[in-house]
Design brief:
alpha/beta, Aspartate Aminotransferase, domain 2, seven-stranded mixed beta sheet, 13 strands
Amino acid sequence: MFEIPVSSRARAISDSITLAITARAKAMRAEGKDVVSLGAGEPDFPTPDEVADAGVRAIRDGHTRYTAAAGIPELRAAAARWFDRQFGLDYAPEEIVVTAGAKPALTLCMMALLDDGDRVLLPGPYWASYPDIVRLGGGEPIDLASEPEQGFIHTGAQIAAAAREHGCKGVVVNYPNNPSGAVPTRAQVEDIVAACVEHDLWILSDEIYARLLYDGAEHVSPASIPGGRERTVVVNGGTKSHSMTGWRVGFLAAPREVAAAVGRLVSQAMGNTCSISQQAALAMANLEEDPEFDRRMKAFDERRHHVVREFGSIPGIRVAEPKGAFYALLDVREVCERMGCDDVGFVEQLLVDGLVATVPGSAFAIPGFVRISYAASMLDLDLAIGRIREFVASKMA
Ligand SMILES: Cc1ncc(COP(=O)(O)O)c(C=O)c1O
């Protein structure tokens, strides 16, 4: 029988691990197992009314046709104003491309920047999809080991040394960070940008969690630092801040030539972002007063405190306080040692025996750790914490 051969490029790509774990938890639930999932990086709040209503209206008003590939002009202009208002970034509408979420923005950016074999530095811990996203662009991902003792943030010198050693063209940074929740200070971002300027590196800055900050932390985009703008591509959007994960809409902001190149790739590879979602994103970007956002952040912050306090009180587990996003990294090295397994084994046993879904740190280039998402209800969090406490106690006994 004839079998269509799959390309080596496609064979080199794996399924998204977080989506796979979430699917596995769902399948176990369908079998009647009462699994609690702290796996998915998805807010449990509904899309805000103003945004959802704009989507409904879009259908009724006939916004159901092809649009300009890079996005409707109103949205590109609104996104430019949003970048300025929220993050002090100055972009012209032509420097904005609307994509079907942050993920395609990252992928198309890699396709626009990389020639075959170009190396890209990925400072750990990093979002699990980055290596495959670099490969999709024809590049080679290069890991830079995580620095837990430095609060998971590398110095410019560390980034420059690794980039020089491996001949990298650019670096992908993601702050607030998934999975660590780390948020660098302005001085730390300045230090990273200065190193990139000195060593001629471009920066792909994934800022999808930029509005999810705690304890007065400030989001500083590398593009806002002198010398940073011309070498940085910013990816952002309302996916996480406005519970729009399913709408598939996000923004890329970059110097004109790069934005134009990404726009060409959108037009040939993806087509315009869903016309309805673009109207919803327009409502999101135009929201000035946003009391619901503050309420969501208050809820995330309460959960963050709860998670840090509770996990911190489990003997064998250590947890650093996240400053942004909605994840915490649990250091389970001690428990793994007792269990005689690695973090993947820990996660597997916790799922099967403890009925809690989490994601192994290995997926984020930080073995020995486990990522939990606290974008979950207090009820689920408490259930999960209780089960993990019991699971770990049984292994440490
Ligand atoms: C760091 C990071 N970047 C990008 C994305 C993808 O976002 P989107 O749903 O907008 O494609 C995620 C989603 O989990 C993420 O954690």
